[in-house]
């Protein structure tokens, strides 16, 4: 199986991903409506209803199972990119199921119940842990960044930008900096432990675009002066 990602974004167009499957390859595509071109036997695509948990988390009814040999092209909306991840035997990362675009045969998914405080901020009761030999594709806003955790020196990451983190990481929901800084930021995860954390770097692009536009001096002042003004004033 070969996956080619076209990162050129001409005129605001999104990313194009080309999948080339050989005999016995099988991919499970969770956003089949993004497939815009297909070459191969018609019988290579087999659409199925998702299970109840998949419908709830992805807000989708249908997934596609595609077997090789064939080739197909998926188009992603502007601002979205796909990250291909090769699973390793010792992987202990917990993922948000909503970011999953595809997974290959040989990949097994395990449900991990979150702690109550984590449920409240992520609005999801479970995370997914993948095991086995194969690949998964993650759909993200902007590029995917990877940072190593440290047992004692915390890493602060925007809570809404997290894609995956080690199962045994220590998490604390917080803000940081002085009073003014902490009042004008989203909640962050204060993370320590071993392993690496994945997060998306484009989630706040829309806010920067708003700041660059002329939205009025009075509104900008209110956002800066009122505690948590960036969150309360849209």
Q: Could you explain the architecture of this structure?
A:
This protein has helices at 52-58, 116-122, 179-183, 205-212, 217-225, 229-232; strands at residues 2-6, 16-21, 26-29, 35-39, 45-49, 62-67, 70-75, 80-86, 93-95, 100-104, 107-113, 126-132, 135-141, 144-148, 155-158, 162-166, 170-174, 188-192, 196-200. With 234 residues, it is α+β, with helices and mostly antiparallel strands. Strands 5-6-3-10-13-8 form a six-stranded antiparallel sheet, with no helix packed on it. A six-stranded antiparallel sheet has the order 11-12-9-16-19-14, with no helix packed on it. Strands 1-2-7-4 form a four-stranded antiparallel sheet, with no helix packed on it. It is globular and about 60 Å long. The mean pLDDT is 81. This is Biogenesis AIM24 protein. Pfam families: AIM24.
Question: So what's the overall shape?
Answer: globular
> Mean pLDDT, nearest integer?
81
Give me the secondary-structure category.
alpha+beta
Helical content, roughly? 10-25%
Count of DSSP strands = 19
Order of helices and strands: EEEEEHEEEEEEHEEEEEEHEEHHH
Strand order of the largest sheet: 5-6-3-10-13-8
Structural key phrases:
19 strands, single chain, six-stranded antiparallel β-sheet, alpha+beta, 234 residues, 44% strand
Architecture blueprint of SSEs:
Elements lengths: L1 E5 L9 E6 L4 E4 L5 E5 L5 E5 L2 H7 L3 E6 L2 E6 L4 E7 L6 E3 L4 E5 L2 E7 L2 H7 L3 E7 L2 E7 L2 E5 L6 E4 L3 E5 L3 E5 L4 H5 L4 E5 L3 E5 L4 H8 L4 H9 L3 H4 L2
Brief digest:
The chain is α+β, with helices and mostly antiparallel strands and about 230 residues long.
């Amino acid at each position: 199986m070969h996956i080619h990602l076209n990162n050129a974004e001409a005129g605001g167009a999104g990313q194009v991903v080309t999948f080339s499957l050989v005999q016995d390859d099988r991919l499970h595509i969770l956003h089949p409506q993004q497939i815009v071109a297909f070459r191969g036997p018609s019988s290579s695509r087999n659409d199925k209803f998702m299970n109840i948990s998949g419908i709830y988390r992805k807000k989708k009814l249908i997934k596609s199972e595609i077997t090789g040999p064939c080739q197909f092209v998926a188009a992603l909306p502007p601002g979205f990119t796909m990250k291909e991840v090769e699973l390793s035997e010792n992987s202990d990362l917990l993922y948000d199921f909503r970011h999953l675009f595809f997974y290959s045969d040989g990949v097994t998914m395990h449900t991990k119940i979150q702690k109550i405080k984590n449920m409240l901020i992520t609005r999801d009761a479970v995370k997914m842990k993948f095991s086995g030999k194969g690949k998964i594709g993650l759909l993200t806003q902007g590029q995917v960044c990877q940072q190593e955790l440290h047992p004692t020196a915390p890493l602060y990451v925007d809570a809404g930008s997290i894609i995956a983190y080690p199962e045994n990481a220590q998490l604390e929901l917080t803000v940081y900096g002085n009073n003014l800084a902490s009042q004008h930021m989203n909640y962050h995860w204060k993370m320590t432990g071993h392993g690496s954390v994945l997060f998306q770097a484009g989630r706040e692009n829309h806010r920067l675009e708003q700041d660059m536009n002329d939205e009025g001096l009075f509104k900008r002042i209110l956002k800066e002066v009122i505690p948590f003004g960036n969150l309360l004033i849209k």
